[in-house]
């Protein structure tokens, strides 16, 4: 069932999210043909899980059936009715079957047309985006900004819990010319596990003052009347993402060692002061065993199929959960190169602080471990971390948190994004990719991490 859902979502995403940016006519025609093929295949795979009897063979020639009404749960009945007509049954006697197939065709083609002819993803199609005109109105009511004018505005793709745009202004007396807006998703309830805009503003202000390379926060607005959701304005930082793809390591070792410095500075901040208001998932002392069993149960309950890698990783974690200590620090929880800006080999900003919490410093170290060892020796990273004020954390604990990071992320992806798609709560192509692509890559990363740990233990 989910295979068809994924294909429907990919086809819709290509049509509404990708096609508007394709300007070449030939490329656009090729894309449209690809969307047509995807919708046909998705329709052929569609089936009703409540239908009785075995699935019909409607894919005999290796592709979708010419008869769009022949879903996997209707194909057998359609084949039986067609066989009767082929054997000489008068059409009048099969009128009900003919009408039934016609009704199915009507419904199927209506659904296919809805995807293949969908308009671009914009406010006109019900997708809420940040409105620069309303943002400009907000700026103009600020002191000294009556003549403020937005001169450039560009939405940034990515992110399921926040929307981001870069923009420039003139006429803002006390505001920088280039800024960033980060807005919550209108109508989407906040999660206790994610920081709201006001909490991020307070945290970034303290970290910026402490010398960390983070964007300088400017304004936070929690009233919904301006942009339908709370939003945060910060100053644009020079540089570009070290890697646009979550899975890619950095190209420059100096950037990797710079990450060690920023991580050490974060972990050295006084928890009770700088970390005021942050979520603490565990009580003092931390019940790591209970958390591990919750993560293990989440895998068992939500996985579509068992995995040797996951079973081995869970067994290793159970054997070593007793090696953890009770350190407490402010942790970022997503400090990888897709969330880091750099320029000329130097980190200029660490972004996306919505998952920041009070935890163990090993959580951040273990999370970045697979990406770091793809570029440099882990001992060099830890040497830079300690030189910048980071604690001397045993390797066994970092190994634990490296595997735990994969297990935790798998739970978030499966029980969050993937299940919201497969249960029909979302049809977004990026959410669909969480189950069709992200989980497979994540399982591979867990396997690489486990292999590295077991090789050192051999």
In short:
The chain has 458 residues and is an alpha+beta fold. Helix content is 48%, strand content 11%.
Q: Which features would summarize this protein structure in a list?
A:
3 domains, three-stranded antiparallel sheet, 48% helix, 14 helices, five-stranded antiparallel sheet, Aminoglycoside 3'-phosphotransferase, Chain: A, domain 2, Phosphorylase Kinase, domain 1, 458 residues, alpha+beta
Give an account of the 3D structure.
It is a single chain. The strands form 3 sheets. A 5-stranded antiparallel sheet has the order 1-2-3-5-4, with helices on both faces. Helices cover 48% and strands 11% of the residues. It has helices at residues 2-18, 25-45, 75-86, 95-116, 132-140, 197-209, 253-268, 271-274, 288-302, 308-320, 361-373, 378-387, 395-422, 429-457, and strands spanning 149-156, 162-170, 178-184, 217-221, 231-235, 240-241, 329-331, 340-343, 346-350, 357-359. The chain is globular. It folds into 3 domains: 2-120, no CATH class; 128-235, Phosphorylase Kinase, domain 1 (2-Layer Sandwich); 240-457, Aminoglycoside phosphotransferase (APH), C-terminal lobe (Aminoglycoside 3'-phosphotransferase, Chain: A, domain 2). It is built from 14 helices and 10 strands.
């Amino acid at each position: 069932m989910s295979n068809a859902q994924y294909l429907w979502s990919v086809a819709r995403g290509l049509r509404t999210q990708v096609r508007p940016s394709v300007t070449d006519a030939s490329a656009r025609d090729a894309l449209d043909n690809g969307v047509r093929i995807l919708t046909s295949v998705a329709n052929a795979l569609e089936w009703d899980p409540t239908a009785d009897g075995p699935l019909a063979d409607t894919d005999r020639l290796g592709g979708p059936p010419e008869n769009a009404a022949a879903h996997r749960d209707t194909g057998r009945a359609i084949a039986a009715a067609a066989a009767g007509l082929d054997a000489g049954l008068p059409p009048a006697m099969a009128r009900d079957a003919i009408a039934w197939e016609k009704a199915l065709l009507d419904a199927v083609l209506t659904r296919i047309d809805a995807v293949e002819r969908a308009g671009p993803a914009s406010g006109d199609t019900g997708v809420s985006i940040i409105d620069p005109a309303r943002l400009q109105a907000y700026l103009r009511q600020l002191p000294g900004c009556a003549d403020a004018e937005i001169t450039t505005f560009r939405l940034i793709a990515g992110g399921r819990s926040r929307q981001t745009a870069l923009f420039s202004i003139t006429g803002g007396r006390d505001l920088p010319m280039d800024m960033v807006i980060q807005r919550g998703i209108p109508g989407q309830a906040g999660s206790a596990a994610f920081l709201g805009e006001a909490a991020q503003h307070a945290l970034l202000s303290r970290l910026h003052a402490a010398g960390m390379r983070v964007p300088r926060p400017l304004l936070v607005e929690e009233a919904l009347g301006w942009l339908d959701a709370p939003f945060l304005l910060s100053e644009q930082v020079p540089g570009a993402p070290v890697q646009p793809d979550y899975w890619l390591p950095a190209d420059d070792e100096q950037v990797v060692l710079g990450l060690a410095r920023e991580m050490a500075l974060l972990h050295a901040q006084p928890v009770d002061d700088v970390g005021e208001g942050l979520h603490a998932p565990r009580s003092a002392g931390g019940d790591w065993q209970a958390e591990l069993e919750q993560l293990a149960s989440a895998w068992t309950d939500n996985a579509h199929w068992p995995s040797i890698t996951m079973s081995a990783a869970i067994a290793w974690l159970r054997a070593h959960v007793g090696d953890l200590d009770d350190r407490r620090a402010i942790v970022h929880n997503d400090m990888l190169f897709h969330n880091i800006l750099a320029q000329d080999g130097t980190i200029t900003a660490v972004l996306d602080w919505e998952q920041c919490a009070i935890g163990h410093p090993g959580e951040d170290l273990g999370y970045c471990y697979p990406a770091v060892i793809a570029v440099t020796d882990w001992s060099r990273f830890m040497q830079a971390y300690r030189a910048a004020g980071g604690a001397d954390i045993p390797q066994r604990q970092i190994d634990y948190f490296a595997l735990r990071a994969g297990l935790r992320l798998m739970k978030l992806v499966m029980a969050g994004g993937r299940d919201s798609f497969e249960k029909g709560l979302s049809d977004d192509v990026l959410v669909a990719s969480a189950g069709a692509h992200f989980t497979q890559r994540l399982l591979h990363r867990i396997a690489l991490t486990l292999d590295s740990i077991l090789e050192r233990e051999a």
